[in-house]
Amino acid sequence: MNIPTKEDLKGITLKKYTTVPEESDVNAALEHLAATHPQLKPVLLIRPTRKGDVAVIDFVGSIDGVEFPGGAGQDYPLELGSNSFIPGFEDQLINRNVGEVVNVRVPFPEDYHEKSLAGKMAVFRCTIKALKQKSDAVVDDSFAKQFGLNTVAELRAEIETHMKENIEEGAFMKLRDQVMDVLIERFPVEAPSNIVEQEMEMIRKHDGEITEDDARKIAAKRAGQGMLLMEMAKANEVTITDEEVMNALKDELQQYGPQAPQILKMYQANPELLRVFRAAQMEKKVLRWVIDQCSLEEVVLTTEEFEKIMSE
Asked: Is 84 among the domain residues?
């Protein structure tokens, strides 16, 4: 296999698209945050639960009488009808009363991300502890405290920082696409058929309507790119540590909110899932190393122009 050298990479020029968040962008993000984090007020009237309510529940899941990792939670605020849990779960908690214990029986989807649970019937013993309703959030210092901050000013600064991080991530994705297109064109790699087949299987899971030819073309390209990156990592001693992987996993888990501890347990109980995550982080690190060796041409855009480029 012909491996690109540092000198080869220095001869590649990439466009780094970027933008600067404006005050109006921060305002819009703050309004969206308020809309997606309404205040929860207790339902004072004694009545059964209904769609749109937030039921505070404890739950323990089991399959054939045996509890499984990541299947339990306490004081979880579940909006009934939000479809945030597996299909059919929330429906069985509607028209119930506070204090009631409900055995929710639902099958895990066939394509569930945890393969050991996919397609299996589970029973979740749920205790409805309280009932709340959503109301519009007031954006003040108390609202900011929900996110571990003291003032709205601090919250605005945090939002702007997050937006800049997203811009950097989007810019990286475009740089990745550019550099890999150039490398595969100049240093073509033919991946083994078994690796291509594995990639095809993953592609089909995400797009059931893709044709066999299109899936094979995409899979062959991805497999070739992956092999080329790993060979470049070996040649240049690019490695990833356990600490780096765990830090990346912690960042990833933040998006799951209250479910983060359960998702972490799932990773810890499934070495294959953790191996796949590690491989993805390794690939990202090698890509960053490759991009660092190239010449970058910064292109500053308006927010609208940047979003358009990112969607292409």
From this structure: yes
Q: What stretches in the chain show pLDDT beneath 50?
A: none
At 119, which CATH number? 3.10.50.40
pLDDT, tens digit, 9 for 90 and up, residues 170-181: 999 999 999 999
- The Cα-based distances of 226 to 39, 59, 190, 220, 310 in angstroms read 46, 41, 11, 10, 23
Q: Which of 89, 112, 135 is the last residue of a domain?
A: 135
The reported pLDDT for the residue numbered 237 is 94
User: CA 96 → CA 35, 72, 90, 103, 147, distances in Å?
Assistant: 27, 20, 11, 12, 31
Q: How far is CA 8 from the centre of its chain?
A: 34
Q: Are 144 and 154 in contact (CB under 8 A)?
A: yes
pLDDT for 144 equals 94
Q: Is residue 1 part of a domain?
A: no
Picking from 104, 135, 166, the residue at the C-terminal end of a domain is: 135
Integer Cα distance of 151 and 149 in angstroms = 6
175 to 31, 290, 310: CA distances (angstroms): 31, 10, 11
Q: Residue 219, Cβ neighbours under 10 Å: how many?
A: 21
Domain interval for residue 12: 6-23+149-311
What are residue 123's DSSP bridge partners? Answer: 62, 105
